[in-house]
Amino acid sequence: MGKVGKIALKHLARSLDFKLVGLLTSPCFSAHAIVTKDGSARLMRGEFYLKQLGSGQDLLLLTGDEHYEDIEGEYEASYRLLTFFKRKGGKMIITLGGHTSPSETPLAVFCFATTKDLLAKALSAGAIRAPTGTPIVGISGVLVGLARLRGVPSLCLLGETLGIMPDFKAAKNVLTVLAKILSLDVDLAPLERGADSLTKVVKELDRRYDALVQSPPIDKVVEESKGPGPGPDYVS
Fold first, then answer.
1. Which residues 6+ apart lie within 8 Å of 64 measured at CB?
2. How many other C-beta atoms are found inside a 10 Å radius of the C-beta of residue 24?
């Protein structure tokens, strides 16, 4: 939904100089490879980034190219990630994503958690509790649901978005809440500039579309391009 989670985590990794430490592949990703800058190819994948915070705790990020293509993939990946996480002594999981909204100016960050303490932290950081019955599609929801069963405290933050294009503003909103929860000092200005640039592109596309629909109908243009044609006395 608007690539909210990916934009937020990629920006966080760059801003705080995280190190790429691992890759995740799966047969449940799309069945194609991506051509790289040097002309080679790579599979669709997830990427692990790691950094030790000032508190001495490690923060591990996982982002990727896409969601899994099927339900089994979502569950298998979530289960394997949880197993890996617990084996490494992980203490808390936070998932990020987008939540579609009919509002033309979406700003809210919705949250839900497996413990009351985590939910309270998210609310005090500016998030809003997700309405009862809200379906959270994809690994952002499945991972938190399975984490509860396996006793891992987990939280989900969802940026309100129209979801029709990469949403830098929603990513900024989510990252603002995340930074408060984890006491991170993150420069959010690049995300604001990204949102402004995308807005300019959209306005230009709207202008071109308006000019196009106000042009003469295509059949009239084609007819006029044929010219006057032969006179009534023309014989083939």
1. 6, 24, 44, 45, 46, 47
2. 17
Token pair, residue 26, equals 């799966």
Residue 136 in contact with residue 159, Cβ under 8 Å? Answer: no
Q: What is the DSSP letter of 98?
A: E
For 164-194, how does the pLDDT look when each residue is reduced to its tens digit (9 = 90+)? Answer: 778 888 889 999 999 999 999 888 888 877 6
What is the CB neighbour count within 10 angstroms for residue 125? 17
Domains and CATH numbers, the chain: 4-31+42-186 (3.40.50.10900), 196-225 (no CATH)
Torsion angle (degrees, nearest 10) of CA 93, 96, 101, 104: 140
Model pTM? Answer: 0.79
Q: What is the dihedral of CA 116, 59, 136, 131, to 10 degrees?
A: 30
pLDDT, tens digit, 9 for 90 and up, residues 55-82? 788 999 999 887 777 788 888 888 999 9
